Automatic annotation (TrEMBL):
Entries under InterPro entries matching the protein: ATP-grasp (IPR011761), ATP-grasp_succ-CoA_synth-type (IPR013650), ATP_grasp_subdomain_1 (IPR013815), Succ-CoA_synthase_bsu_CS (IPR017866), SUCC_ACL_C (IPR005811), Succ_CoA_ligase-like_bsu (IPR005809), Succinyl-CoA_synth-like (IPR016102)
Organism: Candidatus Korarchaeum cryptofilum
Any one of the GO BP annotations: tricarboxylic acid cycle
Pfam families: ATP-grasp_2, Ligase_CoA
Catalytic activity: GTP + succinate + CoA = succinyl-CoA + GDP + phosphate; succinate + ATP + CoA = succinyl-CoA + ADP + phosphate
Record text on cofactor binding: Binds 1 Mg(2+) ion per subunit.
Descriptive protein name: Succinate--CoA ligase [ADP-forming] subunit beta
Amino acid sequence: MRLLEYESKEALASKGIPIPKGILARDPEEAASAVEKLGGRGVLKIQIPHGQRGKAGGIKLVNSPNEAREVAKELFSRTFYGYEVSSLLVEEPVDTVTEIYIGGIIDRNSRGMTFISTPYGGMDVEEIAASHPESIEKRTVHPLMGMRSHIARALAKNAAKNVPDKVNEIQRIISSLWDVAVEYDAVMLEINPLALTKDGRLIALDARIEVDDNALFRHMEFEKRYYSSENPRENEARKRDIAYVELDGNIGTMANGAGLAMATMDLVHTFGGKPANFCDVGGGASADRVANALEIILSNPRASVVLINTLCGITSALDVALGVKSIKEKGLLKIPVVVRMSGNQADEGKRILEGIGIKATESAEEAVRYAVELAKRA
């Protein structure tokens, strides 16, 4: 589960990591009041569990309480990446000199958490890796050993290349970030950027924490929101016990098995497309389950094509086809559907799909290429 920015920052602050002064606002009047309390200027930041909020127009600088009120009205009225806005984090504006990246992610290969630091912050770590690969320092922390001082020091020295006098303070922040990871059962967390301000302070301007879903029983304060996501399609999927995570592409995807679902999304990226979601209907999926999943995928306004990739064993291809057919008969199939179907009862399934005007292929690569082509035409 991805925490909202204000929740992530509260977690950082609980371990002594400095964050900007901020006030949570749930309506335009609260936003105006918050800006007044912060001295008349502020940054309004939508609180949704999604990145790239600034690129979507979800982060705004305002110079008066009245401006904050009007901007907040506009932000609360909009939908970003499929999420309605129910709160804004109103923060003090911060003038920065330089920005740093610090983060950690569970690494199953090393059976620990790999921490990353770079003196280049304020952009996605993938972009940093592409543009400045030599700047990245990686160190793995063993869960039973914890963050050792020499590991934190190595990460801090790399992060502090542009601000060498801050290496000790950055080292303390990295050690505290490990404490946050442990307490919150984080599978991923980052401070991006950790900024040096003009008055010499280090401050976490933005933060992201993802909590292990399997550990939510230990974090009741977040569990309620997990089951009442701001995204209505994710809510509906949880009610129907379907693994569905919305993304920001336009190719809806469905597969029977989490590994196949992720491989399908990788193929979509490989051939130049962007998946609109992750969806795993699981093994032994019934026709009703397939229909329910497809209905959720189709309700995403960004989806311009649906790609169904099934390698059928326990799941019958016949059931997959019957699920698609039921959605077609309800009149809900308004966009193209591309199907890769192989395995148990594939011939029967293909005949049913052909009867409703959908041709299925046995080649995953062929199906993905075609889906990407259709999405580009849309």
